[in-house]
Amino acid sequence: MPKKNDLKGINGWLLFILIIFIISAVRKTLGFLLYFYRKPLLKLAATDEALKAAYDTILNQNIFITIISIASLVILAVFLCYTIYLIIKRKKKAKKIAIIALWIGFANSLFQVIVTISYIPKLISVLNIIKNYSETTLAIAQTFLYIRLGLSLAFGLAWTIIWTLYFRKSKRVKQTLIEK
Prior knowledge:
With 180 residues, the chain is an all-alpha fold. 82% of the residues lie in helices and 0% in strands.
């Protein structure tokens, strides 16, 4: 059993989540930057006119959804960067900000799942354009997409709850994040 003094500093699980926050901040920033290039890149990769038309159908989403998607990426990236800064500086409020960042991340994931669910029928039609699949095959593909999204959301919720409890109950967090 570690002694009380051993549970101090940015080590152990606190170091692990700090690394995860850094990776997530980079991913969200890249996601924001690549958001504007995805449509031209996908259309360049398309091999025939039907596929290009199918990509147009999926990528021409509602402007409201586009604005919320971009804003959520920016807000999450900013919160993650701020959380990283506070943890490195060992600021007491890092605990609260980290928990907020975790829940913003989950809300972002929830929003993306809802948007994705709304686009599944379009995705299925794209699969049908690319290759004329049977109704059964398309139904199975659609079911697997829904299952995958459900599992992703369940994992995200579990992850958020576990790390929220860690930041609230951890002795290392209490003894490390002490600066005003």
